Amino acid sequence: MGFLDRILLVLYSLAVAGVALLTVSHVFRFPLLDRLYVEYPYQVLVAAVILFLLSLRFIFIRSGDSGELQAIVSKTEHGEVRISVQTLESLAERAARLVRGVNDLKTKVRPSEVGIRVAVRISVDPDLNIPQLTSTVQEKITDYVESTTGLTVQEVIVHVSDIAKPQAGKVPARPRVE
């Protein structure tokens, strides 16, 4: 929201507060409101139209913000670099897919105080050491995203949501250790 919109919002809030006071005066039958309508009918109409138009403006400004792409901004000696959250999610997904035994996955990236946090939901091949696999996924994502973007990966959360169903004719990624 720009500076002009902020000023308009303050003025709009004051005007709505005034309308609320006038409404209260009407409810308690104070003659102020009736006299206002009789003495200044066109000015009251213009004020109502302006308030209505400002209401529409603020509705559309607010709904327009939700469509903007989120980005992580880092400052360099040459200026600003913006990397979209979608790009960071794609990079994290690419790194996780490099780990043998990872099947379906979804990633979410959120900004943090000192960088980004990555959450990954994966399904893994059966008969694998899950703690070792998830540790490898965390390392790969951290190394790949940090080396590619220069951003600090504060945390990688891995959620193993399922074990992939074995497919006919497919050899397991690694035999089970007993």
Descriptive key words:
single chain, 178 residues, alpha+beta, Alpha-Beta Plaits, 2 domains, three-stranded mixed beta sheet, two-stranded antiparallel ribbon, 5 helices
Question: Would you kindly provide a written description of the structure presented here, covering whatever features stand out?
Answer:
- This protein has helices spanning 3-27, 31-39, 41-65, 85-97, 130-149, and strands at 71-76, 79-84, 102-111, 116-124, 153-163.
- Helices cover 52% and strands 24% of the residues.
- The longest helix is centred in the N-terminal third of the chain and has 25 residues, at 3-27.
- The chain has a 3-stranded mixed beta sheet, covered by helices on one side. A two-stranded antiparallel sheet has the order 1-2.
- The chain has 2 domains: 3-65; 71-163, Alpha-Beta Plaits, CATH 3.30.70.
- By secondary structure, it is α+β, with helices and mostly antiparallel strands.
- The mean pLDDT is 82.
**Count of β-strands:** 5
Characterize the biggest β-sheet.
3 strands, mixed
CATH second-level architecture of the largest domain: 2-Layer Sandwich
- Derived structural class: alpha+beta
H and E string: HHHEEHEEHE
Helix content: 40-55%
Mean pLDDT: 82
As a percent range, the share of strand residues is 15-25%
Distance between the termini: 61 Å
Helix tally equals 5
Overall shape: it is elongated
According to CATH, the fold-level topology of the largest domain is Alpha-Beta Plaits
Q: Which superfamily, in CATH terms, is the homologous superfamily of the largest domain? A: Cation efflux protein, cytoplasmic domain
Radius of gyration: 29 Å
Count of distinct structural domains: 2
Q: What's the CATH class label of the largest domain?
A: Alpha Beta
